[in-house]
Amino acid sequence: MPPVGELVLFALALSGAAVVAGVLAGLFGIGGGAILVPVFYQVFGLIGIDDAVRMHLSVGTSLAIIAPTSVRSFMAHKARGTVDLDLLRSWILPVPCGVIAASLIAASVSSSALRGIFAGIALLLGIRMLLNKQGWRLGADLPPNPVRAMVGALIGLLSGLMGIGGGVLNNTFMTLFGRPVHQAVSTSSGVGVLIAIPGLFGYIWAGWGAAGLPPFSTGYINWVMMAVVIPITLIVAPLGVRLAHALDKRQIEIGFGLFMLLVAARFIFSLI
């Protein structure tokens, strides 16, 4: 066991990450997984969890936490009337199918491979956040099917592999096709629901019976982490929603982009 002081320090870090994740869930319509996964990875390492399941646990537990957080954020945005419900209805099947595919991949790849996937996507997302221009457009409106369905499945796949709510990906998609940023953020909270619920069950299945899991785990979901983080994220998510409708988020996007680049560098370094 690590020293008590280190456990207290990481407990504080975990609580702080939960606050940031909850605010980001409302502010960007994301689930906060980009914050939680690297923190979970460090905490699981501190308490001696086997490296073979450490990253899988981090991603799976993050998705499980995103489920209630996204629902809370979605209901708050929906009450403001800014959610594109038609897009969400069109993605009821494609997004979960992408998440299920991610669970199948997670069940068969190593921890190193999963870290490499996370690092690669985090690097691209960080660059996207830093270079994002509000005026960039690919079209005047969202594309119809089958392109729309393919994008939904891709968002589900990438988000399921990273343990994130898909907000950054959906925000990019919607704003590139002329949708207002506030509508994109609001709708992303609903996308998070479509990702997190099948992701929770998918990672339970993927890790069922895996060796080296810590106590109070079902598959790649650790219920202790959930019990610590979920109450905090649920409390602070509405604050992020209020900020989303009150702030110019460009500076926050830059800060989040830099954070993603640091996370990518951390996981790349772990592979060397």
TrEMBL record:
Alphabetical UniProt keywords: Cell membrane, Membrane, Transmembrane, Transmembrane helix
Subcellular location per the Swiss-Prot or TrEMBL entry: Cell membrane; Membrane
Transmembrane segments: 7-37, 57-75, 87-107, 113-131, 151-169, 189-208, 220-240, 252-269
A Pfam short name: TauE
Protein family membership: Belongs to the 4-toluene sulfonate uptake permease (TSUP) (TC 2.A.102) family.
Membrane topology per record: Multi-pass membrane protein
Family matches, as PANTHER family: MEMBRANE TRANSPORTER PROTEIN HI_0806-RELATED (PTHR43483)
Name this protein carries in UniProt: Probable membrane transporter protein
